[in-house]
Amino acid sequence: MKITLLCIGKTDDSYLIAGIDKYIKRLKFYVTFNLLVIPDIKNSKSLSAEQQKDKEAALILKQLQPQDMVILLDEFGKEFRSLDFSAYLEKMMVNSVQHMVFVIGGPYGFDQKVYDRANAKMSLSKMTFSHQMIRLFFTEQLYRAFTIMKGEPYHHE
């Protein structure tokens, strides 16, 4: 299985970049992982929230293949405990899902076209975090999920 984290806009904070890189390096022992960053929309200050979401949607949808399992990281998505997320990923592997694409949208969320394309929605918390921080939280949870699958001592219950 291959997993892609698709994001809008680059991360500028060095401490977040270092953390994300740390988990991406660790993930290579478990799964083929790719962090794909779509550049920020140009002149976004002159656009309404709906216009910005529409432009982001076109860029997001362009990156997706028909067979991709697309999961939106969305505040209204399903919440998982770490053990349950690990079991969910394992189930996707057993069901021969070839490519899971987790998507972090822009500051205003997702356009309806992206919701229509998605297979599922997932929430990392009821709290709101910056889109850059979510990248770190997600990559760490992905790493944690694979260590749980392998019975490694990273996760403590």
UniProtKB/TrEMBL annotation:
S-adenosyl-L-methionine binds at residues 73, 105, 124-129. It is an enzyme of class 2 (transferase). It is found in: Cytoplasm. It comes from the Bacteria. GO terms for cellular component: cytoplasm. Keywords: Cytoplasm, Methyltransferase, rRNA processing, S-adenosyl-L-methionine, Transferase. Its main location: cytoplasm. It catalyses: pseudouridine(1915) in 23S rRNA + S-adenosyl-L-methionine = N(3)-methylpseudouridine(1915) in 23S rRNA + S-adenosyl-L-homocysteine + H(+). GO terms for molecular function: rRNA (pseudouridine-N3-)-methyltransferase activity. Gene3D superfamilies: 3.40.1280.10. Its EC number is 2.1.1.177. Specifically methylates the pseudouridine at position 1915 (m3Psi1915) in 23S rRNA. Belongs to the RNA methyltransferase RlmH family. Homodimer. This is Ribosomal RNA large subunit methyltransferase H.
